[in-house]
Amino acid sequence: MSIDLVKIKTALISVSDKSLLDELSNTLHSFGVEIISSGGTGRHLKGLGIPYTPIQEVTGNPEAFNGRMKTISFQVSSALLFRRDSSEDIAEAKHLGINAIDLVVCNLYPFLEVVKKNGDDEELIENIDVGGPTMIRAAAKNFKAVTVCTNPEGYDGLIEVLKKHNGHVDYQTRKDFALFAFEYTANYDLLIANALQKRWGSQKVTIGLDPSNATKLRYGENPHQMAWCYQNPTRQGLASVTPIQGKELSYNNLLDADSAMRCVFDLHNLTTDKFRSAVTIIKHANPCGAAISTDSLSALEMAWSGDPISSFGSIICFNTPVEEDVANWLQGRFVEVVIAPRFSAKALAIFTKKKNLRVIEIDLITQNFDDHMLRAISGGWVVQTEDLGLDVELKSATKNTFETHHNELAQFGIMVTKHLRSNAIAIVKSSEQGLYLIGAGMGNPNRIVSLKQAVEKAKENGHESLTDTVLISDAFFPFKDNIELAHSFGINCIVQPGGSIKDAEVIRACDEYNMKMVFTGRRHFRH
Asked: What pLDDT score was predicted for residue 123?
């Protein structure tokens, strides 16, 4: 037997997706290939006028249990697995009456489609294929002699090879198809595990990425790094969206856009009939601007005022439609990406003048951000659930109590701060137009540095007096030095999780300066 070219004499075809099968089956028939088939696939071949051998003539057993048993058998698996370059295997196959199968064309029950339509447990279980993966893996394992094709989109390539080599398949094609087959069955098992884990309330998640759902990006965080974007086949979201215009999205664009969407999603939950528009401006995964106001333009102006310098080259996300006024306002200002649930025709016409600007239309409010967050570490991965929900507790810890009218501003500040990198400090303010971020400090090794950074940014943006602001910390203050520093800058209202062994000392410092402080009881680190 040639290790390179293998003649296809017998093929087993058993497919759930019967599209594009006519040309392949006709090609096999033209080369004199005996086709073995089962159930619905056999009936489809008969309708095409293609002769076939029913699977039960090979297995010696009828199809049973309403189709649950068809291809699983000693005869079929042996026909795929025995080694053609082993005289011992060949002799044993002859003794057992096993005839070689050289090609398997198989794709699996539509489990993913049932998941997408939220079928019940019974329908889901019935769409777990058992015989198909057995055949596919057996054929792929014995790729030295057997060809396996699992994707109708691969039929054209297989037909081309068969015609090029007069009914034979070369070694590299068999090897390539085998790798794809292993990826295909691995992803199928992953879909089953993840769907049932979620449905049956498991706290675990099975980690795996389907390469068939991967898009290669220009590069990673830096030009010398490679990068891909993998889509979750069960969910629509940023990973599967195509920009209306502009350059392709980069690795950094996608991370920043995701950060922007998550932050706006949280802020949307705080909007009211009066202040219905939320805007977040993201730079390097941190909000450098955020606001809630009466309309998109007003919210954008307020968010931009929080850090006009950092907003250069940023990603902006809206929870409400973008109209002509917003597009006009952004003329002359460089931003990388604009995201909104809808763009008016006039807005899009204006944006076309910025050829490199990516414009993404996606309904943020229907997005499901309840994902497992995955990061690689040396030797493995760490996985966690997303930090979701509002802080329901705002408990006054000081003698000077927090006024109720500050609660809305405090909640806004908490939602912005939780999207800043730790250690995070945010200073927020309210006006007749809405709520907005005026200064932020983040990503520093200690909270004092972040506090100074936030105050410096607020003053840089024209807010000399901070007496009417609220300061938010993503974690507790470990010492009273933060309180003393905040007081020196004129800050009177503080929101923090509490929970430090130094809480009493921090509270006493606030009382000494007649400051107001509330505890939320929840930390929001984001590393």
From this structure: 92
